[in-house]
Amino acid sequence: MACNDSSDDECWASKVGAGEERKRSSYEELEMLTGNGHATAEASKMGQQMAKKIWENRHYLVIGWILLALIMAPFAYELVINALPLPKNPPPGTPSALAEDLFEVKFPYLVGMKMEMVLIKCRAACDTAVTSVSQSHVETLKDMVLRFGFKYPGTIIDIRS
Question: Would you say residue 7 has pLDDT above 70?
Answer without folding.
Answer: no
